Amino acid sequence: MSQSQLSVVVPVFNERDNVTPLINEITTALRGQIDFEIVYIDDHSRDDTLAVLQALKAVTPELRVLHHVTQSGQSTAVRNGVKHARAPWIATLDGDGQNDPADIPKLLAARAAAATEVKLFAGWRVNRQDSGSKRWASKWANAIRARMLRDDTPDTGCGIKLFERAAFLDLPYFDHMHRYLPALMQRAGWQTTSVPVNHRHRTAGVSKYNNLGRALVGIRDLRGVAWLITRSKRTAVEER
Description:
By secondary structure, this protein is α/β, with parallel strands linked by helices. It has helices at 16-30, 49-56, 74-84, 104-113, 132-149, 165-169, 181-187, 211-230; strands spanning 6-12, 36-42, 63-67, 89-92, 118-125, 161-164, 191-197. The termini are far apart.
């Protein structure tokens, strides 16, 4: 197989019924468009997600499967997927099927038209298909985040993103960091942009989050990211 230009990283936990249709959609969207690989990270699922993924490797040559020996959460899964990825650019998707792989070419097109300083293209769910309570909680959280971090990003919680691998791996790592990628990229001196994308209902499985738990963790993380931004220091470097 030729060197991949894009690695599609998908973290999953107990998503056995969503694995096959999502992988089929990824290959439909990207085959013939770009050299790519698909990197699934099973976060120590308690169902047979891992077995389903291993069986799909026989019919999906682009598929690679990583497995966490202990459950470690979405941010760790994304980071490990990126660390093991072979391509210079990464597209991420949530494993629940609510992100549409057909939007990946749209992100790639936005990259082609953007300046080289733009290292993150973040999906923006303009027509969310979540429950009313989840949409309200997300709107409230985004408003507070925007006020504190000033990252000019309307939807940081969207799972579909496109970013440069090297830029991502240079960011400070902490649990839940995937929710603050625009602010962290901007802190590192890069530009980011938001791209409207499709959003779909979950058709199988159950959500792994609740609004209260997400809010309590988010408040602590938000304070930490705000502190990181105030402590950042950048300068140009010359070799002489």
